[in-house]
Amino acid sequence: MRKYTHILLGAALLVFALAPVLIHRAPYESTMGLVQKIFYFHLPGALMMLFIALFAGVMSGIFLFTKKPWADHYALAAAEQVVLFGAMTLVTGPLWARKAWGVWWEWDARLTSSLLLWMIFIAYLLLRRFGGPGSDKLGAGMALFALANVPFIYVSVNYWRTLHPKTTVVPNLVPPMAGPMWWAFAGFVLMSLVLFALRVQQEEQRARVEALYLAANEG
């Protein structure tokens, strides 16, 4: 583990330690009460899923056009986090929805497209694990396809009737609610950077071992 990774990990732990206090002090939403506080985990998790999916798609595009191994390592590490934060989003969302909307799930534009994004990246990881030679390039194409879905997920609530509020809600949050939400988001960002650095380092070492193995067999 590199030195800067220790610093990021320490900062992330500090943020997560203070987050419950800030969330506890945040005011209750007038109609949903306590259950609304799932928002402080659900929304940051959803934002992380979208941002990291964008990053994975961009890195995959760079890999396809430049054949740089580091871009593929970055894309793979990011894809794993899309699945992680996507699972968090898809679990906390129904828990909140059941109380707020009276249903666990609704096949509206945002929910369906978010599930599609998550499933694409699960397929990406399965392909990379079991696809054999050429799976890196095919997986990069899948990540680019997923990239095109990200803007749709974000704007879908503005153009289709969904249970989700429009994108104008977050910028207009009152400070007592916005503060804890962005604090939690910062914690997820820091933890994401730690996991990303560790996973890229692991993938670089795997590539070196594989190259040495191939060189030994050729010799």
Structure report:
The protein is mainly alpha-helical and 219 residues long. Helix content is 79%, strand content 0%. It is built from six helices and no strands. It has helices at 3-25, 39-66, 69-100, 109-130, 135-159, 175-218. 29% of the residues are buried.
Give keywords.
single chain, mainly alpha, 0% strand
CATH topology-level name = Four Helix Bundle (Hemerythrin (Met), subunit A)
Tell the overall outline: globular
Residue fraction in strands: under 5%
Helix content: over 70%
Give the helix/strand class. mainly alpha
| DSSP E strands, number | 0
Q: Helical stretch count?
A: 6
Write down the CATH class. Mainly Alpha
Number of domains: 1
Mean pLDDT: 90
Kindly report how far apart the N and C termini lie: 33 Å
Which CATH architecture?
Up-down Bundle
SSE topology string: HHHHHH
Q: Could you tell me the radius of gyration in angstroms?
A: 19 Å
Main sheet overview: none
Low-confidence segments, ≥5 residues, pLDDT <50? Answer: none
State the assembly state of the protein chains: single chain
Concise structural overview:
With 219 residues, the protein is mainly α. The protein has helices at residues 3-25, 39-66, 69-100, 109-130, 135-159, 175-218.
